[in-house]
Specification:
Blueprint (H helix, E strand, L loop, with lengths): L13 H7 L24 E3 L7 E4 L16 E6 L6 H11 L4 E3 L2 E3 L8 H4 L2 E3 L2 H9 L3 E6 L5 E5 H9 L4 E6 L1 H14 L5 E7 L5 H11 L2 H17 L5 E4 L9 H15 L9
Parallel strand pairs: 3-9, 3-10, 4-9, 5-6, 10-11
Antiparallel strand pairs: 1-2, 2-11, 5-8, 7-8
Helix pairs in contact: 2-9, 7-8
Pfam family, one: Guanylate_kin
Family: Belongs to the guanylate kinase family.
Organism: Candidatus Chisholmbacteria bacterium RIFCSPHIGHO2_01_FULL_52_32
Amino acid sequence: MVSQEVDKATPLQGPEIDRLWEGFPQDLPLTPSCLTKVQQQYDRFTSLEFFDPNLWVDVHSSHLASQSREGWEKGFFLLSGPPAMGKDTILSTMDSWFAGQISIICTSTTRPRRTEDAVGEKYLLHLSQEEFEHHLQEGDFIEHVPLDGQNLYGTPKFTVAKALKGDERLIMWRGEPMGAMEMRRYMSEHHPQIPTAWVFIFPYQMSLDGLLERIAARRPASEVEERFRRAKREIYLGAHADFLLMNPPEKSGFPSRACEAMEALVRNVVGVEKSELSG
């Protein structure tokens, strides 16, 4: 998959996006159609019901679903979504379901380790501020973002190169929307033979109030306001993705429907089946 033309435009900056959300009903269940009031490009998406009803695709993208998978060597999916929407859980589930057939791209961060987040820690390479800045100056990152004002995140080139050389046909990465844009552009320019798609986890049928509650239940009070602001900015940017992975509220708290939709995408597009090791 090639990068969408929209990547060539300069995305709006944070404060500009914040103003677009002014007056948006906090209690309105989120759908792509209602979000066209904030981000018109959400009208480009339609449901891929023949794959899974919780999977939507940008009809203007040269998306993987329209291409023959015959002769493919690999497929690369870039996973992003707002805070508290299950990125790491979905990634870990795919790692289990496609055991032996999947390569997960590890990213670097200067963030301290979180003992309460064993799932997310599995896919992080921790660096000191000095180490990160040295690698940045050396041009060792494909993309990097200052996520919360003090900690840095980035994708080392060597982790992607290792995955591309491996035997696994499925490659997955998780990060922030701006990082996903850079990753998709990088793959299009340097490895156009590897179909690459950005999948955005969409808080389907969840209101902004509900999203705020979800963030507040998972993060310290001092972080909630900034993470909620970031969540709205990332939802805005999610309209640049190739696919929307609907993640509706579930009583168990586990994103089972989103995981099933992601599995359907991998199976139908890349042609990789769940591993017998997944149980």
